[in-house]
Here is the input.
Amino acid sequence: INWTTNEPSTSFIEYSTADGFSSGTVNGSYELVTTHSVNLPSILNPDTTYYYKIHSKDASGNEAVSAQMDFHTLALGDLTAPVISNIATPLITHNSATISWSTDEGANSYVEYGETVGYGSIFGSENLVDNHSIILPSTLTPEVTYHYRVKSKDASGNESISGDYTFTTLIDPQDITAPTLTSGPTISGVTATTATITWTTDEISDSKVGYSQAMGSFTLEQGS
Here is the structure.
């Protein structure tokens, strides 16, 4: 609290939470100055109205006392991060996914995602909501498992980050091209009753082998 006087005098503040108080807590300095500044101790209650009077006494003992004035302390800042719950993937396509979750207060909505727990991509919204739904960009690869986690930050900057979750994109419905063999087939592990056949393809696909004792006629099938 700052004030000035027309002659050197002491600097004291008397304050209380009672309106019209006759006796309150006193804090200040006996130094004789004309420009006064008193810092009240850091023991005031938050979000509270305080009433105060200024006291200044000169070297001859003459004291001036101001009329009662007041101020209101600020409320404590929000130090609690949002609580994240109900994480889900209600919609998954071949190239995108919708991630949803809830928070117990208004917060922004971001999803970190990628093919590993290192993620690498992030997408979301700065709108403060408590029911969150983020549609990832339609740039995902079909039939790939993606890792993701959600992040929400409230208006005070408190942030919560979820654990790791996964989803797998669907088969591309427009894919009409058969896989191409890029190596093989090779035969290994031949015994009297078994054999292993190995090959690779240029895209994810199933693995089945047709076989028979008759040339050109495959009546038996094995694979996954």
Observations:
- The CA atoms of residues 3 and 36 lie 5 Å apart.
- The radius of gyration is 37 Å.
- The chain has a mean pLDDT of 91.
- The first strand starts at residue 2 and ends at 16.
